[in-house]
Amino acid sequence: MSRTQALSWRSRLGGRVRGWFSTEPERGFDALPVRVHGTEFARTAAAPVHVKGFDQPLVWVTFALLMIGLVMVYSASIALPDNPRMGAGYTPTYFMIRHAASMGIGFVAALLVFQIPLSTWERWSPWIFIAAIVCLILVLMPFIGKSVNGARRWIGLGLMNFQPSEFAKLGVLMYAANYMVRKLDSHADEQDGKRIQSAEKFFAAVTPMAIAVAIVGALLLAEPDMGAFMVIAVIAMGILFLGGVNARMFFLIAALLIGVFVIIIASSEWRRERIFAYLDPWSAQHALGKGYQLSHSLIAIGRGEIFGVGLGGSVEKLHWLPEAHTDFLLAVIGEEFGFVGLVVIIGLFMWLTRRIMYIGRQAIAMDRVFAGLVAQGVGIWIGFQAFINIGVNLGALPTKGLTLPLMSYGGSAILLNLIAIAIVLRVDFENRVVQHGGRL
Prior knowledge:
The chain is mainly alpha-helical. The chain has one domain. Helix content is 62%, strand content 5%. The chain is built from 13 helices and seven strands. Strand 1 and strand 2 form a beta hairpin. Helix 5 runs parallel beside helix 7. The chain is globular. The chain starts with a helix and ends in a 5-residue tail after the last helix. About 8% of the residues have low confidence.
């Protein structure tokens, strides 16, 4: 071996040895060589772990509900400019354009919200709840809140009317999930052969949450908006139960809430009349009064029969059915697409709710309790509100002013619904990262 060859061999050997022990591996390649059956893989590029960033079926079902809602809002509101009560300045596309603009704002907000880790939401949750309380107080002020049909529920923001009750749903949801993580130990202890939870002391565990829900409820009833109060109460109760409150405590909370709602209804004359109208909407006393919306909703659904009268063919939306583009959008869907259309919409909401609950359960199984409770809270929110709206349109429940999530006309409702879905997608994304061995 010549001197030149020896120097070259020593240089290569020294470079290889230094490469093995170097703390800064060559860019894009493994630092340590691997030899398998005489083949060296020292120069094999490191294979990155690919994490599928979001639940695509959930996104597509949400998108389908939004698009169906946009088309149906246009169909249900196209004749509203001809209504003398609407005044001048309205065009057939007025409500559709505003609804589409709200969806665009919601998409942008959802993209931004998706970037926020759940750990950040957990830190912010008390402040989000306080902000919701502040908004509920502001809307009651005459020079800030906007009164429509005797209810002061909106704050005018130009492009859309912001409804603080929608924000309050998110605020209570976040606060309840954070409260369960901080105050209640969801793991049971074994003592004398019995499982005893740290939430056994009922009043000590539930009183802070009860006070929070009572404050929100008092502000909502002052608007008044009993429908939103019902949704918020169910969200809080559901998160308490899913977070570890035992069955005895859960049924006690449910009984207390039912008692509160019965007292509220019994103490209000117009609420009592609405219940009586629900029981007999066709009577001469109620058909043109409190039962007017329900009776025309049932007429619309009855006209649709199996396959409907076709898109745009609804008669009830021609000034017969009030709020056809908001609370009673499902009745127009039933009239134009019949029983088949209703089954499709109900099926989509059932799948969406089940999928969201599954994502939350998956997060809890990974010991990500806050993320899991938030996701399941969103599932309760969307599922219960859709259940109430569908029940009202079908005459199974008394009339309440609750819109159909992701579909009915309403800027702040669409905005908050999309933000809630984005948070669920973030929970799913973090679940996938953890499953692939990543760090959050």
